[in-house]
Write a structure and sequence with these properties.
Strands 3-2-1-4-5 form a 5-stranded parallel β-sheet, with helices on one face. The chain is globular and about 60 Å long. It contains 17 helices and 5 strands. The relative contact order is 0.14. The protein has 380 residues and is an alpha/beta fold.
Length: 380
């Protein structure tokens, strides 16, 4: 499992998966065979999160290989991130409330022995401790394992889900505000009120091919309770008229400018933004910061090959821009928080997929997936 930091390698990984492993995806996707045996899943999420690959090109390649019926489960998984982002866009205070509660809980638990043992992988729950090591080493976990991990964290170790979500964001290459925060809320039982996910010994043993022993868990815990519900905030995500000869700002979530419809416009300059830990509320590991930086450098090279004026700047330097400019929308999370708190004279530009898909994110994923054929018809 090697996440090389170029779009060329990302495409190579996508093509290899489609050709060799896509046919068995539905049958094998829930198995975690270990970090050295990941061919049953695509491992494309670190690239999707950063926009190095976009969902549409992945779906197009899968449909060129197999029919929608054979691809349906894979396509649903690809669009989960689109759904989570859209759900959070309609309820952005879920993220801001998370950050507020995290700051309080973090202080309360900073010397808690159970918390410290959990993040050091010293809980004596063999599988959990191994996953902590894997997360810190490879900056990736199998999706099924993330559910087990979160469940053990919340219901067996009795730790706040907010700290677990922070731990994932710190170490995951594909960590993002929507998928991570809402995924942890879902396991806890507060995303879909009263419906939680409980990891069980038999399930872990089955889907890890009995790799682990000593799996003693709390398999009867009740769901966590939420003290707040969130109403939908209407937002049409409408793009402005784009006047050429202005600056375009691109954050770390949209690193494939050259395959977007925006390449048709003659921007005066493109600025790629680096957001260091100095300006983040959730501090990222050195590995994750490096991963983001190298992906941004790769995007710089690809944009410069188009003879477009482009540079990389630190997020705080954006405050020095005096003229009007555009921002390729960074989605709810750390980067948007910085924009909203520090910048003016900008207009957001939204991805076409997000503009169209987010209107279907007002309810649960089961409702969203009924619109997937409509989304596919729109973009393929």
């Amino acid at each position: 499992m090697n996440f090389e930091t170029t779009r060329a390698k990302a495409i190579e990984n996508l093509d290899r998966f489609v050709e060799r492993n896509l046919s068995d995806y539905s049958k094998l996707r829930n198995f975690d065979f270990g970090p050295d045996k990941r061919s049953n899943v695509s491992c494309l999420s670190p690239y999707i999160t950063h926009g190095v690959l976009n969902e549409v090109e992945i779906i197009k390649k899968s449909l060129a290989k197999y029919s929608f019926n054979k691809n349906e489960k894979f396509i649903q998984e690809v669009l989960w991130r689109t759904y989570w982002k859209g759900w959070l866009e309609l309820r952005p205070s879920v993220w801001s409330d998370y950050i507020i509660s995290l700051n309080s809980i973090r202080e309360k638990y900073k010397e808690n022995i159970n918390y410290l043992r959990a993040i050091e992988g010293k809980t004596n729950i063999e599988c959990f401790d191994e996953w902590v090591k894997e997360l810190k080493t490879h900056n990736y976990l199998h999706n099924h394992t993330r559910m087990w991990f979160a469940s053990i964290w919340i219901f067996t170790l009795d730790l706040p889900w907010q700290l677990g979500a922070e731990f994932f964001l710190k170490h995951l290459y594909d960590g993002d505000a929507a998928s991570n925060t809402l995924g942890w809320r879902w396991v806890a039982g507060i995303q879909t009120q009263g419906k939680h996910y409980l990891a069980s010994e038999w399930n872990i043993k089955k889907f890890t091919n009995n790799r682990f022993q000593n799996i003693k868990l709390n398999e009867n815990a009740p769901p966590k309770m939420a003290d707040k519900t969130y109403s939908i905030i209407k937002n049409d995500f409408i793009n402005p008229t784009i006047n050429e000869d202005k600056t375009l700002i691109i954050f770390e979530n949209s690193l494939s400018f050259e395959i977007s419809n925006l390449k048709e416009f003659k921007f005066n300059k493109i600025i790629l933004v680096v957001n260091s830990n100095e300006f983040r509320q959730v501090k990222l590991s050195d590995n994750v910061i490096k991963f983001k930086s190298e992906l941004i450098n790769d995007q710089l090279e690809r944009i410069e090959s188009l003879s477009i004026n482009c540079e990389i700047v630190s997020v705080d330097k954006l405050k020095e821009i005096k003229s009007d400019f555009y921002i390729l929308y960074p989605s709810v999370g750390e980067n948007l928080d910085f924009v909203m708190s520090n910048l003016s004279n900008y207009k957001f530009i939204y991805r076409e997929l997000d503009q169209f898909s987010w209107q279907f994110c007002n309810k649960g994923f089961f409702n969203f997936k009924t619109y997937i054929p409509k989304i596919i018809a729109k973009f393929t």
